[in-house]
Amino acid sequence: MNKRQARLFAIASTLVASVALLGLTLDSHRQFGKLTNADKITPQVTRGKDVWHKNNCINCHTLFGEGAYYAPDLTKITKLRGANYLTAYLRDPSKFYDEARHRRLMPRQDLSEGDIGDLIAFLDWVSNVDNQNWPPRPILVTGATFPGTDQAGAQAGAPPAARPAGGGDDPIALGERVFRSATPACAACHSIAPGVNMAGPSLAGLAGRTAQLFAAGGYRGKAADLAGYIRESVREPSAHLVPGPMYSADGVSFMPTTYAKDLTPQQIDQLAAYLSSLK
After folding, report:
1. In Å, how far are 201, 228, 248 from 231, measured between CA atoms?
2. β-bridge mates for residue 62, sequence order
3. Where are the domains of the chain?
4. CA triplet 148, 65, 21: central angle to 5 degrees?
5. Which residue stretches does the UniProt record annotate as biased composition, category Low complexity (predicted)?
6. pLDDT tens digits for range 6-63
7. What fold characterizes domain 36-127?
């Protein structure tokens, strides 16, 4: 290729790339309304955006990966935590995490109830934007991950007793899949590592703790055994409340109530089999 041919090739390549970029840009703008659910931008959502900026939330958190990386990304936070949890958390973050132990530095913003509701509405709108499943992993508020995590999200570094063996039709292995793939994923709020409490308590040693709960007479639900207790907790999270201000408020559990309709009875049985195996 001589100089003239190289020059023509460069010019043609630039033109083709420019046309492609222009076409993709126009196509993106054509779809923005649908992808961002623009018709769901209510006055409350707009006010919530103003609360977000006024309190400089972006100085610590990210949305769509943009912002500071000091605290977790909040793109899908309403789907992972729910409005009840977020309301209580925003009222007083110190009730959820001990700064000396968890190194949680979220300041108390003294937001009004109206501001809290508006901010949650804004974050809920954000969570429904079609952003190609970003962020790619569940939010883990504390250090609950382990080395060796594979693509399926299985905690390969978790204690051996917490890792189910087998595959195929094994209900324990199928239950672990439900634990990691339900919407929202159970693993986004519960760890299977001893002592690692996130938005929900650690599920390590659940069998032993449940036996102690039944024996102590503090259980308030209707289950008669461990599997029944797990099924009840999934279907009716408020049937028995685990003590602690970070797990419930005003007699209502922060755990989502949607699993009863989103999971089949078979999936709940598989989940019970897996969680029962966490000795």
Report:
1. 16, 5, 19
2. 67, 73
3. 36-127, 160-276
4. 115
5. 150-164
6. 999 999 999 999 999 999 999 888 887 887 888 999 999 999 999 999 999 999 999 9
7. Cytochrome Bc1 Complex; Chain D, domain 2 (1.10.760)
Name the H helices within 55-110.
77-81, 83-91, 99-102
Residues 82, 88, 94, 98, Cα dihedral to 10°? -40
Q: How far apart are CA 229 and CA 208, in angstroms?
A: 13
Q: Measured between alpha carbons, how far is 269 from 11 in angstroms, rounded to an integer?
A: 63
User: What pTM was computed for the model?
Assistant: 0.72
The model's pLDDT over 196-248, given as tens digits with 9 standing for 90+, comes to 888 889 999 999 999 999 999 889 899 999 999 999 999 999 999 999 888 99
Is domain 160-276 annotated with CATH 3.30.450.20?
no
Question: Which pair of tokens denotes residue 263?
Answer: 């999971």
What are the residues facing 248 on neighbouring strands? 253
In this prediction, residue 212 carries a pLDDT of 93
Amino acid at 179: F
pLDDT in tens, 145-154: 333 333 333 3
Query: Assign residue 65 a region: left if phi > 0, alpha if psi is -120 to 50, beta otherwise?
Result: left
Would you call the peptide bond into 159 cis, given omega within 30 degrees of 0 as the criterion? no
